Amino acid sequence: MNTVIAIDNVRKSFSTGFIPKKKEILKGISLKVEAGEIFGYLGPNGAGKTTTIKCVLGLIFPDEGRIELCGRPHLDPRAKERVGFLPENPYFYDYLTAREFLDFYGQLFEIEKAERDRRIVSLLHLVGMEKAAGLQLRKFSRGMLQRVGLAQALINEPELVILDEPLGGLDPIGRKEIRDIILRLREEGKTVFLCSHILQDIEMLCDHVAIIVGGRIMSQGRTSDLISEKVLFTEITVSGVEKSDLAPFGESLTAQGDRTLLKVFEEGKIQDVMDLVRRNGGRIHSLIPRTQTLEDIFVDMVKPQ
Amino acid sequence: MKIRTVQVIALNTFKEAIRDRILYLLLFFAAVAILFSRVLALLTVGDRIKIIKDVGLASISLFGALMAILIGTGLVYKEIEKRTIFTLISKPIRRHEFLLGKYFGLVLTLFVMLLCMSVIFLVLIFFHTWTVEWNLLVAIFAVFIELILITAVAVLFSCFSTPILSSLFALCFYLIGHFSWSLETLIKKARPGAGRTVLRVLDAVLPDLENFNLKTEVVHGLPISAAHVLYATAYGVVYAAFVLTLAVLIFRRRDFV
């Protein structure tokens, strides 16, 4: 497999304040992203996610370390030709209309006029913005900017798409649509580098995950390897049974009306609960085994910091 | 360097500037100032047309410089502040192409604005003299060369400073440039020694924007030597190139946080 992004021991510090004080943001990051996968880059606020992306794109210069994009040094325009980027909270030229905006970026890639027009129409359709094509971006809502920003990132039909919080500021339908687009990009053989702190999205979409905390990569690997299939506990919602009768089986948490939510930690006791309910003529409303989620791993990792 | 990239960014910058309201405000006041020269002419004894020419050309130069400074100083800073530069630099363009694109976009804008002001001015003159005076165009061309230089200075400051500070710096450059000729008088009066050497160095380093001022020649109908126009053009272009090189050097290593 081809390595699309190779980051090797990158360090970056910034000096701030009147009397400059150095603060190290990236403390030796190493990463490898292979072609054709959705790579999740996860971390709490201020961990260095965006700083990493800025280093990769040449917006800032690392103090140390090497970065390669598609096998070339990352500042080489020939490498950048194959990359698409959607920044966090996208700000674009608000005096341009959506069509002019996409056309401008298309021209930077030296795409022919006819081809540009074709791509703009299909991209506006892809992100569901055909109706707003002639509208100035200053009149766009946050979600609309996000969509047109995604279209901008795809104008050069890139091999690698870097998305910084692409699902922020979107309504549930918008999130679903963008998620579908990301999955479609993978089907087309593109590599997606997805940066987010929304764990469910990463868990749902990504093949590989790297977790960055405090400027260091704490964990890296296949999503399925990171999340164990082991059942942590089972949540059972029952009614028609006294709360006190349920106490020996596990932790009874909440009672809503006559329903009680019970957390059972031992698998053997699940059958006992069901028997008890049946004897009392009660009902079981739900029975959900809870496995470890990315959130659990993430919280474990971030907590000690 | 890809000329095409510079061109695309320049055209986009032109679009940005032309859709900016401040430009039209300045153009409006420039028009008022040029037309006001007609009113001033009423108050003078003697050759009215001289006053119209003098005040008109001065207005064009001043408002042109204001346009260059007020738009130029925000040009690069705004891109960084509004983070539009993030998506741009992530595209296959080099940083100096971006900076030059911005610069030439503004130069194009100023050219169009200068054209508008000149039309108002020349029409006003035409209604008084019923002749077209070509040497007025030479004077306006000199103003354009001056604007090329001032724009470069504005862009340079915009690379590392806020628009307000940059505007102040660029305005100082404009004022110093127009009064630096008085240093020569001072040098003549100063006693030989260290003080005089310092003044000589200052005289060499500071810009001399009076090179671009052909008002006296035009107003009084004096001949304008081709050599002088050529010298002024070369002076402006070389100085602007030097300032832009400085700007590129600063901009090349900048982190966009």
Structural overview:
The complex is a heterodimer of chains A (305) and B (257). Chain A has 305 residues and is of the alpha/beta class. Chain A has two domains: 3-223, P-loop containing nucleotide triphosphate hydrolases (Rossmann fold, 3-Layer(aba) Sandwich), CATH 3.40.50; 231-298, Alpha-Beta Plaits. Chain A is 33% helix and 32% strand. A six-stranded mixed β-sheet of chain A has the order 6-7-8-3-9-10, with helices on both faces. A four-stranded antiparallel β-sheet of chain A has the order 2-1-4-5. A four-stranded antiparallel β-sheet of chain A has the order 12-13-11-14, covered by helices on one side. In chain A, a hairpin with a 2-residue loop joins strand 12 and strand 13. The model of chain A has no long low-confidence stretch (mean pLDDT 86). In chain B, helix 2 (21-42) runs parallel beside helix 5, helix 3 (48-81) packs antiparallel against helix 7 and helix 8 (182-189) packs antiparallel against helix 9. By secondary structure, chain B is mostly helical. The model of chain B has no long low-confidence stretch (mean pLDDT 89). Chain B is globular and about 60 Å long. In chain B, 81% of the residues lie in helices and 0% in strands. Chain B has one domain (3-173, 230-252). Chain B starts with a helix and ends in a 5-residue tail after the last helix. The chains are: A alpha/beta (305), B mainly alpha (257). Chains A and B meet through helix 2, strand 6 and helix 3 of A and helix 1 and helix 4 of B.
